[in-house]
Design brief:
The protein has 516 residues and is of the alpha+beta class. It is 31% helix and 26% strand. It folds into 4 domains: 72 residues, Dna Ligase, domain 1 (2-Layer Sandwich), CATH 3.30.1490.20; 118 residues, ATP-grasp fold, B domain (D-amino Acid Aminotransferase, Chain A, domain 1), CATH 3.30.470; 171 residues, Succinyl-CoA synthetase domains (Rossmann fold), CATH 3.40.50; 84 residues, no CATH class. Strands 1, 8, 9, 10, 11, 12, 13 and 14 form an 8-stranded antiparallel beta sheet that branches. A hairpin with a 4-residue loop joins strand 12 and strand 13.
Length: 516
C-alpha cells in the first residue's frame, strides 16, 4: 500500500468538501514561520512521517506565534524517525475541540467490500476500546446505509445541530476512498469544535499499489508500502523494476549507520521472501547490521541482478556483501552469477562477498562466480542449497574479521580501454562493445560460442549474426558472453549498461579506462 502524508490526505478531503484545519506543509523553518504568519493564530506543528505516536516522540508541538514556529520547526526538521530524516512539517491552525470522534474505512478482504469503523466517542486509545466502535458494511458503489448511519449518530452524544455534518463526513470518507482507490482511510480524531464545525483534525490514507498508475495527480513516487519517504536508491530500484519485468527487483533502505557493538554494515541481497528473511536473521545473529533489504527472484535477468548489485554497492561503509535466498529456487542460478560477477568486476570489489546460489544449475553458478571473481581484491565465495544460512553467515563473519581493507567506498564502474574505440551496437539501456583490434582467432571463436547465436565470425572478428533490432533485449546473453570471455582470459566483449540515477547518488562519473 502506498502511503500519503497527512497534509496530502487532508487536501483530498478538502477537495471533496470536508472541513480540514487551515494550514500548509513546509520543508524549511522559514517557510513554516511564513505559514503561521498568514494564519495569524495559535498553531500546531506536526512532523510528516509515516509512524504512529508522533506526539510521544516530540513530533507534535504547539506554538503561539511565527517566531516560535520557526524555532520549533528547526528542531522538528532535524529529527529522524527510524533511520530517516524528517523533511516536512505541517503547520495548522489550532482547533478548539469540543468532542473527538473516530472514523476509518478499510477493505474487508473476506467480504470483498469496504467496511467503515465508527466511534462516536473517539480519541486516543480507540483501538483498545472495541465496545465503542460500530462496524458499518458498505456497498462498494454507494457506501454505508444512510438510515443506519443516521440512527447511530442520533443515539450518540453528538449535538443535534451537528449530526448531519457528522453523517456527511462519514459519507465523505467513503467517497474519497472510492475516488482514489484507497486501501484505508482513517480520521482520528474527527472533531466537533466550539464554533460548531465538524473537522478532520488528523488523517492517514493508503492507496492500493495497483491503482497508483491511475492517479498520477497523487504524486506517489513508489507504489509500495514504505515507512518513510522513498530514498534515492529506492527510487532507482523502483524505476529499474518498472522498466524490466523479467523477475523481481525489490530494494528497501534499512540502515545507514550502526549501533555500538555492531560488526558493521552489510549489503544484503536475497532471492525469495522466506529464505531471505531466514538469511537476514542469520547474518544479524552474527552481530552485523543490515544496510538494505534487496530481493531478486522470479527468474531475474542477469542485467537486473547486475543493476541490483550496483545499487547495493552504491552504499558507503559496507564491510561485506551477503547474498542468500530460498536455496531451492527454480530459476537458473547462473544468470544471477553472471550479473553479480560483472558488477563485482566493474567495481573492483574490495570487501568480502558470500553468495548462496541454491537452485537449478547451482554447480555452474558457483563455478562462474568463483572463476570470474578470483582476481578481485575482495574474496568472493559461492555456496549451494545444502549450505545453510547459518553456515555461510558464520563464514561471512570469518572473512570480515580477517579482512584488512577499509569499509567500502562507492565508485563508478571501470571499463576496458577499448570502450569508445571498438565496434559497438545498442541494446536496451546500453551498448555492447567489441575489441576488434584485440581479437585473435581464439577470442573470436569464444565470443561466437558464448553469444547464444547472436554473433558470428566475419573477417576474423565477431559481428552480429542477426539484425540490430533483434538484439535490443538480449542484455543478459551478452553479459554471459562478457563474463565467459573474461574467465577464458579473452575479454574482448563488454556490455555497457546504464543504471539511471546512480551517478547522481555516487556524485561521480564512471571510471574510464580501467583496463582488462
Amino acid at each position: 500500500m502506498a502511503r500519503l502524508h497527512e497534509y496530502q490526505a487532508k487536501a483530498l478531503l478538502a477537495k471533496h468538501g470536508m472541513i480540514v484545519p487551515r494550514g500548509g506543509s513546509a520543508t524549511t523553518p522559514r517557510a513554516a514561520g511564513e505559514i503561521a504568519a498568514k494564519l495569524g493564530c495559535p498553531v500546531v506543528v506536526k512532523i510528516q512521517a509515516w509512524t504512529t505516536g508522533r506526539k510521544a516522540i516530540g513530533g507534535v508541538v504547539f506554538a503561539d506565534n511565527p517566531a516560535e514556529v520557526v524555532e520549533q520547526a528547526k528542531r522538528l526538521l532535524s529529527m529522524t524517525v527510524g533511520n530517516f530524516p524528517v523533511t516536512e512539517v505541517l503547520v495548522e491552525e489550532l482547533v478548539a475541540i469540543r468532542e473527538e470522534l473516530f472514523v476509518s474505512l478499510a477493505l474487508d478482504d473476506a467480504a470483498r467490500a469496504p467496511v467503515i469503523l465508527l466511534s462516536l466517542a473517539g480519541g486516543s486509545g480507540i483501538e483498545q476500546r472495541a465496545g465503542d466502535v460500530h462496524r458499518l458494511a458498505c456497498d462498494p458503489k454507494t457506501g454505508p446505509d444512510d438510515a443506519l448511519l443516521k440512527k447511530l449518530i442520533a443515539a450518540s452524544r453528538v449535538e443535534t445541530e451537528l449530526q448531519d455534518a457528522v453523517a456527511s463526513a462519514v459519507r465523505g470518507v467513503f467517497e474519497v476512498a472510492k475516488t482514489y482507490e484507497a486501501r484505508s482511510l482513517e480520521i482520528n480524531p474527527l472533531v466537533t469544535t466550539e464554533d460548531g464545525r465538524v473537522v478532520a483534525a488528523d488523517c492517514r490514507m493508503t492507496i492500493d499499489d495497483y491503482a497508483v498508475f491511475r492517479h498520477p495527480e497523487l504524486g506517489i513516487e513508489i507504489a509500495r508500502e514504505l515507512d518513510h519517504p522513498p530514498a534515492a536508491l529506492e527510487r532507482i530500484a523502483y524505476d529499474i523494476e518498472q522498466a524490466d519485468h523479467r523477475g523481481t527487483f525489490y530494494f528497501a533502505q534499512l540502515n545507514t549507520k550502526t549501533d555500538d557493538g555492531s560488526k558493521g554494515l552489510v549489503g544484503f541481497h536475497g532471492a525469495g521472501g522466506g529464505g531471505s528473511m531466514m538469511s537476514m536473521d542469520a547474518i544479524m545473529s552474527e552481530g552485523f547490521t543490515i544496510a538494505n533489504f534487496t530481493d531478486t527472484s522470479g527468474n531475474p535477468s542477469a542485467a537486473k541482478v547486475y543493476r541490483a548489485a550496483r545499487s547495493i554497492l552504491s552504499q558507503p561503509d559496507l564491510v561485506g556483501y551477503f547474498g542468500s535466498g530460498s536455496g531451492v529456487a527454480s530459476q537458473e542460478q547462473f544468470w544471477s552469477a553472471y550479473g553479480l560477477a560483472k558488477a563485482f568486476w566493474e567495481l573492483e570489489l574490495t570487501i568480502p562477498a558470500v553468495i548462496r546460489l541454491g537452485g537449478n544449475s547451482e554447480d555452474r553458478a558457483v563455478e562462474v562466480l568463483s572463476d570470474a571473481c578470483a582476481e578481485l581484491p575482495g574474496k568472493v565465495e559461492g555456496y549451494k542449497k545444502d549450505d545453510t544460512p547459518r553456515t555461510i553467515s558464520q563464514r561471512f563473519a570469518e572473512l570480515v574479521s580477517a579482512s584488512t581493507v577499509a569499509p567500502w567506498v562507492p565508485r563508478g564502474p571501470r571499463t576496458p580501454a577499448f570502450v569508445g574505440s571498438g565496434s559497438s551496437f545498442p541494446i536496451n539501456g546500453g551498448k555492447v562493445w567489441i575489441d576488434t583490434d584485440g581479437c585473435d582467432v581464439e577470442a573470436t571463436r569464444l565470443a561466437v560460442e558464448h553469444s547464444s547465436g547472436l554473433l558470428k565470425e566475419e573477417a576474423g572478428i565477431p559481428v552480429l549474426a542477426v539484425a540490430e533490432e533483434d538484439v535490443a533485449g538480449k542484455d543478459s546473453e551478452f553479459i554471459a558472453c562478457e563474463v565467459e570471455l573474461r574467465r577464458a582470459g579473452k575479454p574482448v566483449v563488454h556490455v555497457e549498461l546504464d543504471v539511471p540515477g546512480l551517478a547522481e547518488v555516487l556524485g561521480c562519473a564512471a571510471v574510464a579506462g580501467g583496463g582488462n
